[in-house]
């Protein structure tokens, strides 16, 4: 079973950096990251590198945090999620490894 967020092809990786000490506050750089992320994902069709910070969203308290459920559920297609869930449940029937951020990536969007 494999979890590739994009089909085989030719791609490039683009990253942006932050210097937290000069950004004013943690929320300042997270808001800046969210603006870039939203443009790249919504306007350019980009997919996040899931080994890095992604899924920035403003919560009800006004704070921006990474790894929002509303972003995590969209990284893999429903077909990929179903195939992986069949594999995962066969190889890990007790759900020992079915925890954490990985399960957010496999969750259905609500």
List keywords for this structure.
110 residues, mainly alpha, 4 helices, 40% helix, globular
Outline the structure in words.
The chain has 110 residues and is mainly α. Helices cover 40% and strands 4% of the residues. The chain has 4 helices and 2 strands, in the order H-E-E-H-H-H. It has helices spanning 26-44, 69-72, 78-91, 100-106; strands at 57-58, 64-65. The protein has a two-stranded antiparallel ribbon with strand order 1-2. The two termini are 25 Å apart. The model has no long low-confidence stretch (mean pLDDT 89).
Task: Explain the layout of strands and helices.
Blueprint: H1 26-44, E1 57-58, E2 64-65, H2 69-72, H3 78-91, H4 100-106
Antiparallel strand pairs: 1-2
Strand residues, percent: under 5%
CA-based gyration radius: 16 Å
Biggest sheet descriptor = 2 strands, antiparallel
Number of strands: 2
Order of helices and strands: HEEHHH
Silhouette:
globular
Quick check: average pLDDT?
89
Sheet with most strands: strand arrangement? 1-2
């Amino acid at each position: 079973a494999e979890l590739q967020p994009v089909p085989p092809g030719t791609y490039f990786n683009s990253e942006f950096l932050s210097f937290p000490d000069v950004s004013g506050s943690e929320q300042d750089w997270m808001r800046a990251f969210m603006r870039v992320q939203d443009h790249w994902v919504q306007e350019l069709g980009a997919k996040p590198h899931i080994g890095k910070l992604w899924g920035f969203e403003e919560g009800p308290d006004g704070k921006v945090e990474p790894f929002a459920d509303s972003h995590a559920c969209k990284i893999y297609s429903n077909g990929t999620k179903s195939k992986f869930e069949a594999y995962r449940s066969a190889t890990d029937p007790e759900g020992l490894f079915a925890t954490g951020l990985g399960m957010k990536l496999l969750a259905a969007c609500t």
